[in-house]
Amino acid sequence: MSTQRTQRQLAAIISVDVVGFSRLMGADEVGTLVHLKRLHKTIIAPEVIKHHGRIIKLMGDGAIILFSSVVDAVSAAIAIQRAMPAYNADLSAKKHIDMRLGINLGDVIIEGKDIFGDGVNVAARIQEACMPGGVALSATAYEHVYGKVEAEFEDVGEREFKNIARKIRVFRWAETRRPDQNRKLALPDKPSIAVLPFDNMSSDPDQEYFADGVVEGLTAALSRMKSFFVIARNSAFSYKGRHLNVIDIGRELGVGYVLEGSVQRAGGKLRITVQLVETAAGAHLWAERYDGTDSELFDLQDRITEQVAGALQPSIQKAEIERAMRKRPHDMGAYDYAMRAIRHVWMQEKDQSAKALLLLEQSLAIDPEYPLALALSAWCWAQHSVYNWLEDIEGVVLQSLGFGLRCRA
Question: PROSITE patterns in the record, alphabetically (predicted)?
Fold first, then answer.
């Protein structure tokens, strides 16, 4: 009886992931498939062939590519990413295709036209640590390309990955893929926030997944609040393991606030700490600590999600009012005037209400249909009616109703 020997090979593997594949397919299924096929035919396949690689597997949302040389693999990956801006130039912003490329040097098992093994798994996990439009390398891959390719890489430290028993050191391609990524993004006209991945302060890798679950819950809860602009989970998680300050993160994502935190586990007890930080100056606005036991994991996660989401609203509103107060008048928009007015509205005094109305008039002069300014104006005029601050009560009531109807519309 003969046994077939397992065929193994030391190889460089590229794991390709199309960012936001489900979103792209949901918006335009046929168009997305057409663009992906064109991308494969015009950029990916030619670069792989040019650098002596072989495409092992094509999936809808990615691919696995095999090279006998790490230098060839890295060179091909960088060439592909550098070609993407020109490819996306003909597409609308919503149809842009971004990819993450993870590269590992490892032992693989070859079975027919497919490959398996730890080397492939690590490449796939490395890709998760990559920025959209970027390239990430394992330490073993980086050691073999150092000084051999015209590209710079930054060490982002050791990372723990799901289903990988050991920590993997990750290096990221340092070149900015898009020329506009160094520019500060404009803030939206309402509080904007990113919930960053929480740090795992314990040695238990299971806590990493629990921390990710808390972040996902908070992101979903905040997204349901219409008064917030919340960065999507995938964009926020691209900062996992990166050592950037919140000012840089705010600039890159275009958000005024970040929520960050940590999870610690010891002796069957859990401690989760969260803090809200303003990105303009890196100022800490609010922090809280939550304690519980292992048996309360899911209850604790729900409680944290509810309490943090509720506590953020007043903290952010106060910070937004203070930010608007610091702005020069010629830089102010409808949102800024409304923020300045809020503090006067809630004083419920005649002279304070009058000051609020003056600010709200300036807000509505910029945007006559701005819902927040309309709602606050209606509230101010309602105060005039209730407290008899004006003689023409009937006229005040009609004016208040008018603002309210415009707001509802």
Answer: GUANYLATE_CYCLASE_2
Cα–Cα dist 282/257, whole Å:
9
Strands (E), 279-326: 283-293
Q: How far apart are CA 56 and CA 259, in angstroms?
A: 40
Max distance between CA atoms of the chain, in angstroms, equals 106
Model confidence at 244, pLDDT cuts 50, 70, 90, reads: low
Cβ within 8 Å of residue 220, ≥6 positions away: none
pTM for the full model? Answer: 0.48
Nearest to 160 by CA among 211, 105, 219, 218: 211
Rounded to the nearest 10 degrees, what angle do helices 334-345 and 297-326 cross at? Answer: 100
| Continuous H helices in 56-117 | 70-88
Among residues 378, 344, 381, the alpha carbon closest in space to that of 359 is found at: 344
Range in 53-57, 95-99, 256-260, 304-308 the model is least confident about: 304-308
Extract the tokens encoding 344.
Answer: 């006067």
Domains in the chain: ranges and CATH: 7-180 (3.30.70.1230), 192-310 (3.40.50.10610), 329-408 (1.25.40)
Q: What is the DSSP letter of 238?
A: T
Beta-carbon count within 10 A of 180 CB: 8
Contact 241, 170 (CB under 8 A): yes
